[in-house]
Amino acid sequence: MLQLYSAPRTWKTLLTRGAVSDKTRTWGHMIRVADDPPRNWELVTRDLFQDCGPITITGISFTALEGPGNAYFDHIYLGRTIQDLDQVYRNA
Question: Distance between CA atoms of 31 and 51, rounded to whole angstroms?
Fold first, then answer.
């Protein structure tokens, strides 16, 4: 799970994969990107404005959602446009 903390003091649960328990379901709206956790690295691109509306991100949380195991995140980039994100790779 990836969660963004935004002003005014609100968590936005953005991306989840795999099963969501009754306990976790009470956390509010979640955007699911897949039913099962990936077995290989995957690129996921989201439009945060479309997902959350206008927000000011003040914190971020990476969570292994349910059960035993780990969550692996390689890197996260924020950009205003797809072209901004493409520029990250051109400058690497």
Answer: 8
Cut 0.85: pTM above it? no
Whose CA is closest to 64, among 33, 8, 18, 22? 18
Q: Which domain holds residue 18?
A: 2-90
Q: Across the chain, which distance is largest between two alpha carbons, in Å?
A: 44
**Whether the Cβ atoms of residue 36 and residue 88 lie closer than 8 Å to each other:** no
CB contact set of 43 (below 8 Å; sequence gap of 6+): none
Look at residue 42 and tell me whether its pLDDT is greater than 80. yes
CA distance 37 to 19: 9
Domain count, the chain: 1
